[in-house]
Amino acid sequence: MAYRVDHEYDYLFKIVLIGDSGVGKSNILSRFTRNEFYLDSKSTIGVEFATRTLQVEGKTVKAQIWDTAGQERYRAITSAYYRGAVGALLVYDITKRQTFDNVRRWLRELRDHADSNIVIMLAGNKSDLNHLRSVSTEDAQMLAEKEGLSFLETSALEASNVEKAFQTVLLDIYQIISKKALATQEAATSTGLPQGTTINITNLSSNISKRACCSN
Ligand SMILES: Nc1nc2c(ncn2[C@@H]2O[C@H](COP(=O)(O)OP(=O)(O)OP(=O)(O)O)[C@@H](O)[C@H]2O)c(=O)[nH]1
Ligand SMILES: [Mg+2]
């Protein structure tokens, strides 16, 4: 979802959290939206979401962040989860190699279900457990470069880089959208069409709007 509206916020961006069970997705969400952390959080069942409104390049952006279970059997219907998402935080646990090895699997799932222009941030969580590290920063950086992702190591526990991870994703989305809006405006000007109010609908959101409007 990347709608431009006139009241409490300028943009609404849907961001999804993905990654194996136990990597810390729900705690990243609670840290970002409520500044809370739970040492003994339970596995997510189904889908939850939380929002936070913040400023990006002088615009008010409402981030609507969706969280589901990493465990297959608790996951909600995949296509509905990804529908309308303009950003994704793909999380692994720096102390658990398997969760990093599965990043490719999550990328495939994104490719299959999400918009091809989705902005993706790879997040190596639990950076506070450096002494238990089993994934080097360099390995993750290499993978991120190869796959064209942004990358940060985060700690939901220490509130390290969580804010930055979301800010980076939101800024990337915003920049894509404003470039598209500018291109649309320029195209309209060059074709001599009358100038009206510009409605910023990206490729990302147009899929959704179509689906939402015409599914029956
Ligand atoms: N040390 C440390 N522990 C963390 C961090 N983030 C989460 N945890 C712990 O890791 C465990 C799992 O965290 P969750 O946030 O529930 O993991 P999840 O990815 O949402 O798991 P599912 O809902 O099963 O997919 C909990 O015990 C958290 O307290 C972190 O940054 N550092
Ligand atoms: Mg969870």
UniProtKB/TrEMBL annotation:
Among Pfam families, the record links this protein to: Ras
Q: Name one GO cellular component term.
A: endomembrane system
Q: Where does the UniProt entry say this protein principally localizes? A: membrane
Question: What GO molecular function terms would the record report?
Answer: GTP binding; GTPase activity
Question: Is GTP-binding a UniProt keyword of this protein?
Answer: yes
Q: Which UniProt keywords apply?
A: GTP-binding, Lipoprotein, Membrane, Nucleotide-binding, Prenylation
The cross-references to Gene3D superfamilies, in alphabetical order and at most eight, read: P-loop containing nucleotide triphosphate hydrolases (3.40.50.300)
Which InterPro entries does UniProt cross-reference here? Answer: P-loop_NTPase, Rab_GTPases_membrane_traffic, Small_GTP-bd, Small_GTPase
Q: How does it sit in the membrane?
A: Lipid-anchor
> In which domain of life is the source organism classified?
Eukaryota
Location in the cell: Endomembrane system
- Entry keyword annotation includes Lipoprotein: yes
Residues in coiled coil: none
Q: Would you identify the family this protein belongs to, as annotated?
A: Belongs to the small GTPase superfamily. Rab family.
Read off the NCBIfam families from this record.
Answer: small_GTP (TIGR00231)
Q: In its UniProt entry, what is this protein called?
A: Uncharacterized protein
> What is the organism field in this record?
Salix koriyanagi
Q: What is the lineage of its organism?
A: Eukaryota, Viridiplantae, Streptophyta, Embryophyta, Tracheophyta
